[in-house]
Design goal:
402 residues; alpha/beta; eight-stranded mixed sheet
Amino acid sequence: MQTEIVVVGAGLAGLAAAKTLVDAGREVIVLDGDEAPGGRVRTDRVNGLHLDRGFQVLNIGYPAVRDLLDVDALRLRPFVHGALISDSAGLHLVTDPRRDPGGLRDTLRAPIGSLTRKFMLGAYAAALAAAPAKTIRDRDDRPFRARLAGYGITGPILERFVRPFLSGVFLDPDLTVPSRFAEFVVRSFARGTIGIPAGGMRAVPDQLAAALPTDAVKYSFPIREVTPGQVTGDFGTITARHVVVAVGGPAAHSLLGIPAPRTRGCVTYYHLADFPPVAEAALVLDAEKRGPVTNSIVLTNAAPEYAPGAVLVSSTVVGNEDPGEAVVREHLAAMYHQDTSAWQHVRTYRVPDALPVHTGPLRQPVALGSNVYVCGDHRDTPSIQGALVSGRRAAKAVLSAR
């Protein structure tokens, strides 16, 4: 088989690269070893339920999301702009007063620190929301926890709210992620709307794949070797003028020999509850660290389509160790202040390479020479935005090549 450009991997980066190239009039074939597009952004359909492979969200404030996707067609089901903080006294709603003025009283009363510290956090988030991207890009890149301390975000407001919330975002409980990357993410939260598509997170790669010509994506085509001008797999060899490798960091290392990024993992548990333990479509965070769960949410409070006529709860533990469903269920009972003994365990997803560990510059080169390119969130910021931008950068490098 011959083509002008072959893209290895039908995750978000590969599909973004392919769409950009096709829109420019180029001939592209996309190969993927799985049976459907998406890579790590996948949704299983199980007995009428939508189960994302690990808790994931879509932020429509990401510029690349708005550029490459028809956001309205995704039918986003938004989450609350904030979280429910759980402690031994109960559940306390904390929201962004700029986005939810009605929640200001609850936020001021929430036991997450003094009013002064709350105003410091609000001022910091507002400043990031208003800041041009260049302002953040030009800042020094200290660990994010040190940046927060510089703005007075320490003590209870850090330990009871900020750390539990951002641990689930970065899969980094110590908040050692580089501050420029972290501030871009916090900025996008402060500016955008976060939620899940009605059809599950797989609606994102499905839409990108549907924008490509019929039969442009070949599934169940695992690749064993990549060399300049060709890729080889169990099916044989495809020759192409340009080869774009759009797989995760560990797989890119195996195929190209580039340095393998460290990764962070998580374990997500799905339960069917007998009734909604809370009314809000909000993350529930444990301010007192009473167990292994980093965050939990009643998905059907936001998206009833995920479990028609039922109550679906998603809960995530940061790290690769599975503490066991019984331990998780016990912790959820404490977090929700509800008896969870009747909850039905549906499925557990262990995602060992959920996010690459971001180090170094915000963006790494995508052109490797000899008309071979690499993209993925390991070459950009570890996020949906990073994957899409990286794929688009690789496509532009191909288009500019002679």
